[in-house]
Amino acid sequence: MNDKWPLAIFLMGPTASGKTELAIRLRQRFPIELISVDSALIYKGMDIGTAKPSAEEQAAAPHRLIDILDPSESYSAADFRRDALAQMEEITAQGKIPMLVGGTMLYYKALLEGLSPLPAANPEIRAR
Q1: Distance in Å from the first CA to the final CA of the chain
Q2: Which of the listed residues 6, 63, 64, 120 has the most CB atoms within 10 Å of its CB?
Q3: Are residues 87 and 64 in contact, defined by beta-carbon separation less than 8 angstroms?
Q4: CB-based burial, 95-105: b 16+ in 10 Å, e otherwise
Q5: Strands annotated E in the chain
């Protein structure tokens, strides 16, 4: 992706505040594709306590970056930034507008501001 950001819509707020319902209504009227900005919904099976969009809601408006990893796998804000930018680029190439929906503000901040170029965590130390 180049330095020029594509047009994108951000719908951010706390859990269960109506973001999904609004996003689905907007998707019915405008050429948008939804990208989840939720650190719990990245993981498969996180259906309780997350206000995860129902199967019906996801059928009406598919959300990208939901249920992509097993809970035993790690995922960082840097991973989210990489994946979200790739999704945004793909959506824009299709002539649509990415709408990022969620409440994980660390992910939002990482996407907009980037992250410090720190080394990755040492897996041997983390295993202790």
Answers
A1: 38
A2: 63
A3: yes
A4: eebbbbbbbbe
A5: 9-12, 32-37, 63-64, 97-102
Neighbours of 36 (CB within 10 A): 26
For 49, counting Cβ atoms within 10 Å of its Cβ (0-12 exposed, 13-18 middle, 19+ buried), the class is exposed
How confident is the model over 60-105, as pLDDT tens digits? 999 999 999 999 999 999 999 999 999 999 999 999 999 999 999 9
- d(C-alpha 120, C-alpha 77), whole Å: 12
Please, what are the domains in the chain? 9-127 (3.40.50.300)
State the helix-helix crossing angle for 77-93 and 105-113, rounded to 10 degrees.
70
